[in-house]
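Have a close read of the entry that follows and walk me through the local backbone shapes. See right below:
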Amino acid sequence: MQVVHPINDPALVSYHRPELIGLMPSLELALDCWNLLDTSGRGSAKAKYLLQEPAEPKKAYEARLHRSTYTPIYRDSIRAYAGLLNRFQLVDAPASLANNENNVDLQGSSIHSFWNRCDEHAIRDGGVYVMVDMMPESNSTTNFIDQQKDGRHPYLIMIERKDVINWSVEYKGGKEYVYHATVRQIKSVPDPSGYGVKLEPHYYVLRPNLVEEYRLEKKDGKWLQVQVGSIATTLPIVPLVWYGASTSKFGQGDLPMNGLAELSIQHYQMRSDLNELLHKCAMPVPVRKGAPTGVDGRPAPLVLGPNTAVDLPAEGGEFTFAEPTGRSIERHQAEITHIEGLMDRSGLNFLYGANIKTATEASLRASQVASQVASIVRNKISSFNTVMRLWAAYAGELASLTVESGISLNDSLINRPIDPSGIAQMVNLHNAGLLSKSTVLSELQRGGVLDPDLKVKEEMDRIDEEEASIPPPVPTQNTRTTARNTEPPTVNPLANQ
């Protein structure tokens, strides 16, 4: 839905921060690429990036749009990153969160699926907001114990970056505190003219201990904001957490995959040009000279087929097929291949052997992505820990949290998978006494062979218990006989007397 409310008037709740306005084109491009240029359905975004050429007929332009296809490398790369970040475990979580781990948003999403969507939006848009809210009170809930009996518990809400339009922060003792944040939500309201509904933007201003709801009305050519209602909360802070891809500062940071989005559009445009060139040059063009004219002074219509012939004068008549040389097609194909190589460098494909020439090149490229992934990992752990504490504060379980409460996430996420030969080498090194069991298990886990949730120390303890429970082997009769025969004979000192 396109919102027509003013965004430059700081007196209105619809005011947008300047840094957000500067990011809007990039956010729109990221959304279109994520939706495969089909944001509003029926390929609506294709025309934005594939313009109509001068003097091109409308029907020809529409046919060209229909033939153009968009390659989903951008979305696949983001999903690959998000899949790496989703391998985490809860640590010392409050009881209400552990009990509702499979439905943290009241929409049936587990904690992993919810944060997987957050990871995708954080990588795509450079950040995402996570809001912690509490289920509404009922008449029977008067304290925390009643809340637990009634089934009330906190829940999470994911808010896209473009929907938190203005905010203010202050710093106390070097820490950042959010003073207010305005969230825009598109609500469905009944249409008074019939049985349908209409979409209407509403604005929620989050403050410590308070949430206010507003909507805008236009009267006499001026926009006025009308307060719909307000709700008091039990938290003395704004329960909105910023999960940024490159920085932890509230609402700040660039789009890490913006370069890949630009390359995706360039790739789409060049593929469209190549498809159009192939479409028009796939059939050789017939050329005839000296065709006889009819009574109307025009040549007879040309009919091609297996049972037709072309009649031409004996002198000066000629019929041939004109074919393109193919240089333009080859050049387009080579340029598309070059663009695809640049896209691979911006994605994860090269980490697993695609387009890698040397080991040094692979190491340099991998280190760049590893640094970026490590930054996202740190920001995710920090934001999740804050979300967990807000959850515990709503549920009255702050006393149950420990210093370790949060998530455990391995920051070595982009290691290349170990192949069977690598597994055999590690086993041989262990058998030769050059590697310990613990090291082998850890390396197999890092290489994706073992479950990332496996606890190596616990597995080592289980191995020791199993080895201790196995009785020692009982020697066979032949073994005892051999041992007895190898003993030195007993000498009797009185034998010669």
User: Anything to note?
Assistant: Confidence is low (pLDDT under 50) at residues 349-356, 493-497. The CA atoms of residues 245 and 256 lie 7 Å apart. The first strand starts at residue 88 and ends at 91.
